[in-house]
Specification:
alpha+beta, Helix Hairpins, Heat Shock Protein 90, 10 helices, about 45% helix
């Protein structure tokens, strides 16, 4: 076999086959456990039946003795009746003849009877069960009731007094009038074992055949049940295979059963919708970026072509100024696009710094150029406000907010910073025309301008607020437009961080 070929495994790849085998193996273990339990329970029940037969034999012997009749030797259960003052057994049978008890009893004689007799306790009676050591048979025969080496056997016995019997009954039994009789019945494990073995053998055979048939049926049922259950999954697989990155508009059919396949189909549809939205956003972003780049490039190219066509009539300083302005606009737009691309792929900083936003805003307001038109830029907070993050990214976020306010403000821009519980709340408020309520969220989309002509005249790219919101989210904060009667007010909320001295 080629060394590069994957090794073939005996375990099937099909989910249906794997499930069927797993269910069959589980059922086999369960059936084996049940078979083991049934086997031992049947054996135990058979042993109890044998003990019950021995108990019945004991009762029958006692009844015969009370009637003065000597029990016959023919019996399925070994028994022996012994008495005090008597060397030989009173009666025996059921295999006890292997010990030749006609000359001497095998089982121990009872103690001498009490005199006078105890008061009659009524019709209730009892017997004792205990193991007794029995010697080896005198004349062992193969297939006999006892083992050739003897052994310890479970024995049931009960006692009866001779004075409870009539004189004729005592004479018929050949015992003294004051003798104590004891009736022994031996519970042979071999007899019980033969009964139990026959029953368990038949039961085991039936259980084995039923178990094999049951395993086949269970495996087949599991196979077809999984096959039917996986039909929606196969349909989902076929449909999702046709989805491409350029056209993720396909949607899978959601089953109405409400089981796990329904949740899977819903999740896949949600994922496909996100892919569709992302693809649409990417296409829109590329189209908007191309449009934004084309405008300054067209202006720059037209200016240069006119200058080259009429060099003697061209105001070269003005042409160079126009080209520089459009080039700066292209440079700003390229930087914004590059930053957005980085924000879409970068993860939050693993070990952020602690930044004092009050100090950062104070420095920006002092250094911000206000040369085009007179504006008042103030910050009314002096208390430190700390937040975790990247200082450069915080500066870019705040500068974008100030640039947006400066393009639309009439006379003044006011910045406030407050510590509110676990948050730092920063607002940038201008006295410009404001933003309509229906556009409160749309202005954070990329390349969106509510006044395109004025924004381009002032150098806006339509990406400043989108970048600011992405930076706020990157630092686990929010950036929203809050309603105001005059102008626009942007509110930035960031998680508050302890001051360096408080750590």
């Amino acid at each position: 076999m080629n060394a590069t070929e994957p090794r073939r495994r005996w375990w099937p790849r099909s989910v249906r086959s794997r499930t069927a085998l797993a269910v069959a193996a589980t059922a086999a273990v369960i059936l084996a456990g049940l078979g083991w339990w049934v086997h031992h329970d049947v054996y135990r029940q058979s042993t109890q039946i044998a003990e019950g037969q021995a108990e019945k034999q004991l009762l029958a012997l006692l009844d015969q003795l009370k009637e003065g009749a000597a029990p016959v030797r023919r019996s399925t259960v070994p028994y022996e009746v012994v008495a005090t003052g008597r060397r030989a057994a009173v009666a025996y049978g059921g295999g006890m003849e292997e010990f030749d008890p006609g000359t001497r009893h095998v089982l121990p004689a009872p103690p001498k009877a009490e005199s006078p007799a105890p008061p009659d306790g009524g019709t209730a009676w009892g017997y004792t069960t205990r193991p007794i050591r029995i010697p080896a048979p005198h004349d062992y025969k193969p297939g006999g009731a006892f083992d050739k080496d003897g052994g310890t056997y479970l024995v049931m016995y009960a006692e009866i007094r001779a004075d409870e019997l009539s004189g004729d009954e005592v004479a018929a039994l050949g015992v003294a009038a004051d003798a104590q009789l004891r009736v022994y019945v031996v519970v042979l494990p071999r007899a019980a074992g033969d009964i139990a073995e026959a029953i368990t053998r038949a039961t085991d055979g039936r259980l084995l055949r039923a178990g094999l048939v049951g395993l086949v049926l269970i495996a087949a049922a599991a196979y077809f049940a999984v096959r039917i259950a996986l039909r929606p999954v196969e349909a989902i697989r076929v449909l999702t295979a046709s989805v491409t990155a350029s056209d993720p508009r396909e949607r899978v059919t959601v089953p109405a059963t409400g089981h796990e396949i329904t949740a899977l189909a819903t999740t896949i549809n949600t994922t496909l919708q996100r892919l569709d939205n992302a693809a649409a956003q990417q296409r829109r972003f590329v189209a908007d970026a191309a449009h934004e780049l084309r405008s300054p490039l067209t202006t720059l190219l037209a200016s240069l072509e006119v200058a080259l066509a009429y060099p003697e009539r061209t105001d070269w300083p003005a042409a160079a100024t126009t080209a520089a302005r459009q080039t700066r606009r292209l440079h700003t737009l390229a930087e914004d696009l590059l930053l957005l691309a980085r924000l879409d792929t970068r993860t939050p900083t693993a070990d952020p710094e602690t930044v004092d936003l009050t100090a950062l805003v104070t420095r920006l307001t002092e250094q911000y150029p206000l040369t085009e038109r007179p504006l008042a830029l103030t910050c009314d907070s002096t208390a430190p406000a700390h937040a975790h993050g990247n200082p450069d990214e915080y500066e870019r976020l705040l500068r974008n907010l100030i640039d947006n306010a400066a393009r639309h403000a009439a006379h003044r821009i006011q910045i406030t910073i407050r510590n509110q519980d676990a948050w730092v709340v920063l607002t940038v408020h201008d006295d410009g025309p404001g933003v309509p309520t229906e556009d409160a969220e749309r202005i954070f989309e990329r390349f969106v301008r509510l006044d395109d002509a004025r924004s381009r005249d002032h150098g806006g790219t339509g990406l400043g607020l989108a970048i600011a919101r992405d930076l706020a989210h990157r630092h686990r904060g929010t950036l929203t437009l809050t309603p105001r009667t005059l102008g626009a007010c942007f509110q930035l909320r960031l998680p508050r961080a302890p001051a360096p001295a408080e750590k």
